[in-house]
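Q: I have two molecules that I believe assemble together. Could you output structure tokens for the complex as a whole instead of separate predictions?
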Amino acid sequence: GINAEYGEAVVSTQSTGSFKNHEMDPFLLKKIPKDTVSRLEEFALYLRESKKERRSYVSVVKTVNVFRDLICTADWVTARELIKIIKCYCKYLPLSQSNETDVSNVVRRILKIIREENAGPEATNLADGISAFFKSDMKPSNLGRSDLQDNILNSIVELLVELDTSKSNIINMALEHIHSNERILTYGHSNTIRDFLLHGRRARDFEVIVCESGPSLQGHRMAAELSAGGIKTTVIADSAAFAIIHAVNKVIIGTHTIMADGALRAANGVHQLAMAAKYFSVPVIVCAALYKLSPTHLCSYDPDAFNKVIGPENMLSFSNAKLHSKVLISNPDFDYVPSDLIELFITNTGGHAPSYLYRIISELYHPDDYDLDNMCVETVDDEL
Amino acid sequence: MARDIVVGSNARCAALICAVKTFISDYKCPKTKEIRSHLNIALKPCFTYLSQCRMMCVSMENFIKHIKLQITKSSPDLTESEAREELLEACEDFFKENIYLAGKSITEKAVNRIVNGDTILIFKKSQLILHILLEAKAQNKEFKVVVVDSRPDLSGVSSCERLTAAGIPCSYVYINSSTYIMKKVTKVMLAADALLANGYVLGPVGTAMMGLIANTYNKPVIVCCETYKFCERVQTDSILYNELADPDSMLKTLNAEESPVAGWRESPNTRLVNLVYDTTPPALVSIVITEIAELPCSSAPVVLRRGAVKM
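A: Yes, here they are, computed for all two components at once.
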């Protein structure tokens, strides 16, 4: 039955910027022309209808285009105003749903671009000292709006190129990590991993074992795609992972999000796979593009605060109604994998140990943007 | 047994005992031969046939060893009908001592370990574990059960049905979500198909994973196993000795869509592997409850030796 525990788990307790108000903030409506408003609303609707199979790359490119549109058409003079407008729009978007971390990350990248262009060529970075970094930020630039806008748009084009090439950068590293006659274990379905392994197949001969990943059974789709690409694939049930993992050379998996300390929010069942790999000292390698790297930490060990529970129709058919009414059935969507279980991250900028990710975060995102609900533009901001 | 109508180590052994009893009652010894040498020869093709239908489990193998020994040991002075009676009684006693009474003894010991307010995790379906939980409920203990299930056979559903019918509050998850619920669990109770001489526990595939996760979250792992399932074999991994079940059962999905690997037999690159057993290392098990005592896994060879001395 739907008891209190189950009902509470469905509501994400992550951030306060929930999608309660379906109306845009009047401040925002003042600053944006009408046709842009309709495009912005369309994007919010696209995010709201979160479909599980939506490819994160597609969402991310869409996000960049929408925000580029916003930057060009909104009414702003200084970078500070622009950031305020963007953050106001972010409150309107359903970013608190745990599906949308890649969108939030790209928004943070754009905000960082704006801050950097505003600071101009003498911009300091974190390496020069923390106080200098924070102080130099939001001085009004000597550039006028049109110049600043041009610089920002150029950087956004570079960002788009980076996003475009992120997957090919990752898969080109396949030959460094797969050798002949290896047995690789993977879990469920991931476009990145599939292309990574297929790229490796072009030069090396190896075997792949795929865990089914119930109850969605995405592993079956992965196995079909891999064997169509010429890789010898074996499908096993998730319960058999511990039984065969000692005979496997490495575990290569994808993830939904990488958290700031190197932990993962990955598909349900990855945590226990990583634990079994650790028990037998089999290395776990995660391939993911950097737009999945999120500067958020695990807010609580309470699984209901971190996870999202979806409907159990794939676990127990609804025709067994008698049982459904008496038994609490949990079908969490994600799994938290702590960083000590992971050996290596392969990203579009190369391979990194989990302990190095904090540095990458400091380069990609600005600390004031870590919490997108926080409306202040600078830490010393009094204007609100 | 090949069609999964009789499942579970105890059930299969009991079914084998019935079948052997029927065989012995119907058996007529040829005039020139002695029952004790001929009966074994007559039984051999039956056992071969059974093992061809489905690989024998350890409980069945141990019964076969026992009954063969009883046949050879039977006194030559007895008439054929007396010998037959004696053997039928030996079969009955085996069942009564090793399955029925052992089950009751284990239940008593295990129920003592269940306290009010417990949340007990069980894995799939085991006749013995269900018996323990139902007995605990009958003794009016207040506890909850989390049933962890796994594909492809999903036997945990019938566990849920039995438990809810008895009024025990139940949760149900797949093995993928076991780390999600493990925090709220207080004890893990697992059943074994066999206990190997080096202390490894042979159980339905996924048992080892439950043991590992329970250990990581510091929950006690209680394995319940009758002593007749203790076996001389030693194994350190799950692959060398295992059974492969029907791979097509992995293609069954609950929604009507066909699995993308449904045509796996035509594809030269695809294989489906459906393991039946796995071995849990003794380090992951806190205690094994048997009818003679509550032991650590490392005491398995001691019990085996004691059993050999008894015979």
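A: One point stands out. Chain A has 16 helices and eleven strands.
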